[in-house]
Amino acid sequence: MSTSDNDTALLAYLKTGSLQAFRHFYFTYRHWLFLTAMTILKDEIESQELVQEFFIDFWQNDRYQKIDLTNIQTLKNFLFVSIKNRCLNQIAKDATRKRRMKDIMLPEEYTLPNNKLENNELKELLEGAINQLPERQSQVFRLAYQEHKTRKEIAASMQISEETVKKQVANALKTLRAYLRKMQF
């Protein structure tokens, strides 16, 4: 029996909704998907989590019911493309986080506090500045920088466009930088 025939049989078994079929599917492909994710992400823990999330989504969202092996050559190809896309999305999300952290850098003339008390004072100062932002800007800023949400996630949760999110974040950063520059550290 060829791999394609095995995949077709496994998919047919999965489509019955059998938990045993899902277990077989999981144990058949989890290691291979992990290695695929590791090749792309170069991070063991992130790769494990990504593969686990894939299997959870696959089962909970009945994705096995929607796969048509006549449109894809094999189940393995479908799995590879799915994991590759998740990895690329993760890389983009990580890049967004890094860019955001860079964007919120303190003014060059500011030196980091040496003790916990100074850190707490700075946090309070920043929190006060965020609270002075218009409500929508403050909410968008908090989602972006404190909860590390992507523009797309923020837009969906607030029911606004991604462009509006981008403008709100840019305006919030501009206001916060100006406020912090005024403060004498």
From TrEMBL:
One of its GO terms (molecular function) is DNA binding. Belongs to the sigma-70 factor family. ECF subfamily. The keyword NADP does not apply. It comes from the Bacteria. Residues 124-176 form the RNA polymerase sigma factor 70 region 4 type domain. It holds the Pfam family Sigma70_r4_2. This is RNA polymerase sigma-70 factor (ECF subfamily). InterPro entries: RNA_pol_sigma-70-like, RNA_pol_sigma-70_dom, RNA_pol_sigma70_r4_t2, RNA_pol_sigma_r2, RNA_pol_sigma_r3/r4-like, WH-like_DNA-bd_sf. The keyword Nucleotide-binding does not apply. Keywords: Sigma factor, Transcription, Transcription regulation. GO terms for biological process: DNA-templated transcription initiation.
